[in-house]
Amino acid sequence: MSLRNDFSSTDTMFAGTVRAPFVNDLLFSRWKSYDGARAVFRYAVVNLRKKLCVTAV
User: Fold this and answer.
1) What is the pLDDT of residue 3?
2) What is the CA angle 30-12-14, rounded to 5?
3) Whole-structure pTM over 0.90, yes or no?
4) What is the H or E stretch that residue 10 is in?
5) Which entry of 17, 34, 42, 56 is 20 to 30 Å from 2 by CA?
6) Sequential DSSP letters for 20-57
């Protein structure tokens, strides 16, 4: 049986449903925390590159 014909998959079971508001709040707060972590990581990488470039010259 192919996945396309499997009617028990979550995509076909919940195709027309709307998520509850608290689910959206959880998802968006997680995305915001990922964005914050990504910003901190970029800041650390940029500072590390600056230090390596200054000491390499």
Assistant:
1) 47
2) 45
3) no
4) helix 10-13
5) 17
6) -HHHHHHHHHHHHHHHHHHHHHHHHHHHHHHHHHHHH-
